């Protein structure tokens, strides 16, 4: 809910500045036009004072100079797919939509880079570079609707992170505007650069709390010739985790390795036909890529290892047409989750691989004790578990139990040496827990970095650390 003590409103001269800078079409003030910009996928809401939609670097400079002068909070967003409230404009301020900063400026096959504006949809960039037989690996589950700017702001991962890494590995350089209007251009087009502090990586994952990114230079790779996927069901969670370990022990590094536990499998089965037997307790979803000859050998090796683990089911897809139905199951988890309950608290925790079994068993026990279904799934290969605590938020007591379950899950994560977030960020959802992972010295250093970029705390205040 909006903070009842946050009573700031826009003065006439402030409205005049925004309207003059952005024009009537791209400076929005009435509640009907701005309402949708007050929430993200976290489903928490605060009304923006106004919404603006810049189309140029010069407009962003003017905005940032003005905002620092009048101490106006700035909240940068695109499609609002964030699930931790990083886009919610609280305390009251100006929401800046990047949806009109959506050009793919350049795809360079010699330098292996793409230069894009922050509003470019991730999946659209991937389609474009594939026309030149190039490859942009980061693939968050929301890639068909989320934007590069949002991915950079949260250092999004995705299913291919096991082999290819997360977004920070692909951001070579960027242009950003600081509060006050100064422009910085850290990094560049080179794939190696150790001159000075790495400001690019400082900005990547900062949840829009340091600067306004206006363009991004991304590293590209050659596109793999072929891909193959395998969906494997197991009668117990222990069997599934043991099978994953055997794959790694055999020296096989999949492109992606996803997992789903029983609760998640049951949710998906409510909305579509599924290939696993009814008593399946866990499933693994693998993807391989590479040259055609190498892929054939890798697929044979992986299939051999998995068959030796005596799975309950094993389905193979070769090439995009056969693989798509297998990966559609993974993408259906979010919509299917609402067949379990109307509301959820979403977390993405990261654990050392050796602690995954203990964590999953204890999370299930937390759900059982709370009388709630907790869906667990995600990126098994890098220990990133998505935890969806399903509940009915309109039932006050049930919502209280869900919040308590979340707190228990986060405490368990830290006790096992894990992290409170692997790729979604902190936002509003986890701000109250950050001090439990980061000590006072670390937080003081981070506050110093924030002050150097944003001395008056106007960039997405109250989020992150």
SS content category: alpha+beta
Helix percentage: 25-40%
Overall mean pLDDT: 96
- The strand line-up of the biggest sheet is 15-12-14-13-17-18-16
Q: Classify the beta-strand content into a percent band.
A: 15-25%
Question: How can the largest sheet be summarized?
Answer: 7 strands, antiparallel
Shape: globular
Rg calculated over all Cα atoms = 23 Å
Tell me the distance between the termini: 21 Å
Contiguous runs where pLDDT drops below 50 for at least 5 residues: none
DSSP helix count? 16
Work out the number of β strands: 18
List the defining traits of the structure above:
single chain; 465 residues; alpha+beta
Question: What can you see in these coordinates?
Answer:
With 465 residues, the protein is α+β, with helices and mostly antiparallel strands. Helix content is 36%, strand content 20%. It has helices spanning 12-26, 31-34, 57-70, 122-130, 148-154, 161-164, 199-203, 237-249, 262-269, 292-308, 319-331, 333-337, 356-370, 396-415, 434-437, 440-453; strands at 27-28, 50-52, 74-77, 94-97, 104-108, 113-116, 134-135, 171-177, 183-184, 212-219, 221-222, 226-234, 256-261, 282-290, 313-318, 343-350, 374-379, 384-391. The strands form four sheets. The protein has a seven-stranded antiparallel beta sheet with strand order 15-12-14-13-17-18-16, with helices on both faces. It has a five-stranded antiparallel beta sheet with strand order 5-6-10-8-9. It has a four-stranded mixed beta sheet with strand order 1-2-4-3. Helix 13 (356-370) runs antiparallel to helix 14. The model has no long low-confidence stretch (mean pLDDT 96).
